[in-house]
Design a protein that fits this description.
single chain; about 280 residues; alpha/beta; seven-stranded mixed β-sheet; 7 helices; about 20% strand; binds 2-acetamido-2-deoxy-beta-D-glucopyranose; Trichome birefringence-like C-terminal domain-containing protein; TBL; TBL_C
Length: about 280
């Protein structure tokens, strides 16, 4: 089984590993990353099974493909480049894709026509929805061409919601998920997740000849403003006195605590994997 995508999919991968590893004795499992951390492999030796994570935040080749250093000033994706990462997905029995957050730049998305090494770059700009549609079409085309539907199940996880603005759920201005301890009770709550993106997913998947199992986790997760890692995460650099005095400023309201919400995503995955109909 291989998870392919961004840090949210990495979270779902880690959740899956946590769910499985407690039933395996210490000598019967291992977890390793390659040098550049683009691939992490959990091995359940007695079962000849691996659960893997492949960092590919746009699925297509991009200038953010370094799994460790990927803060770039201007995100750029290469057109028609899905084989760059796709070559690492071949032969997998269960593929779980995601991609969303990296497309949300608030600007037009830049597509490169040539190579990242070209000195003079030819660039085409797309709106967020157009760009995302290009990615979905590329992914579905790749799956159809390279996967055998009798052998490989393909899953796609929808957008993981953020809680970076309390006003979206009627909280005070300036707040975020920090110090939130209860869920949002309004069953119609949606937040600020991009509905056009959901529509693009629905349209493109309904055209797909290869069956894709969709894990529609967006709304059920949007209630969980209490479930983020918030201030309880590893910080990349020491916090400044100003930050420490104002925890809201460094709370992570994108990623999720484990154990937690993402275990539920995997329960859905489990149910759809073993009981497809
Ligand atoms: C383990 O899995 C690999 C890859 O699917 C396969 O080539 C190999 O034959 C398997 N070994 C056993 C003992 O099942
Ligand atoms: C998949 O399985 C079906 C039914 O067993 C069979 O008719 C079809 O040829 C298989 N397709 C491939 C690509 O092997
Ligand atoms: C956290 O929430 C509690 C309960 O709502 C409130 O009493 C407290 O002042 C909040 N703390 C901060 C630092 O915002
Ligand atoms: C996912 O679920 C939401 C409701 O939670 C629904 O509005 C949306 O249409 C669903 N998306 C797809 C592609 O089925």
């Amino acid at each position: 089984m291989m998870f392919v995508g961004d840090s949210l999919n990495r979270g779902q991968f880690v959740s899956m590993v946590c769910l499985l590893h407690r039933v395996l004795p210490p000598h019967a499992k291992s977890m390793e990353s390659n040098m550049d951390q683009s691939l992490t492999v959990f091995r359940a030796k007695d079962y000849n099974a691996t659960i893997e994570f492949n960092w590919a935040p746009f699925l297509l080749e991009s200038n953010s493909d370094n799994a460790i250093v990927h803060r770039v000033a201007e995100r750029m994706v290469k057109k028609g480049s899905i084989n760059k990462h796709g070559k690492d997905w071949k032969g997998v029995d269960v593929l779980v894709f995601n991609t969303y957050l990296w497309w949300m730049t608030g600007q037009k998305m830049k597509f490169l026509k040539g190579s990242f090494n070209d000195e003079w770059k030819e660039i085409e700009e797309f709106t967020t929805e157009e760009a995302y549609r290009v990615a979905m079409k590329s992914m579905l085309k790749w799956v159809k061409k390279n996967m055998d539907r009798n052998k490989t199940r393909v899953f796609f996880t929808s957008m993981s919601p953020l809680h970076i603005k309390s006003q979206e759920w009627g909280g005070q201005a300036g707040g975020n998920c920090y110090n939130e301890t209860s869920l949002i009770e309004d069953p119609n709550y949606w937040g600020s997740e991009n509905k056009e993106i959901m529509q693009v997913i629905g349209e493109e998947f309904s055209k797909s000849k290869y069956p894709i199992t969709f894990l529609n986790i967006t709304q059920l997760s949007s209630y969980r403003k209490d479930a983020h890692t918030s201030i309880y995460k590893k910080q990349w650099s020491p916090l400044t006195p100003e930050q420490l005095a104002n925890p809201v400023s460094y709370a992570d309201c994108v990623h999720w605590c484990l154990p937690g919400l993402q275990d539920t995503w995997n329960e859905l995955l489990f149910a759809k994997l073993l009981f497809p109909n």
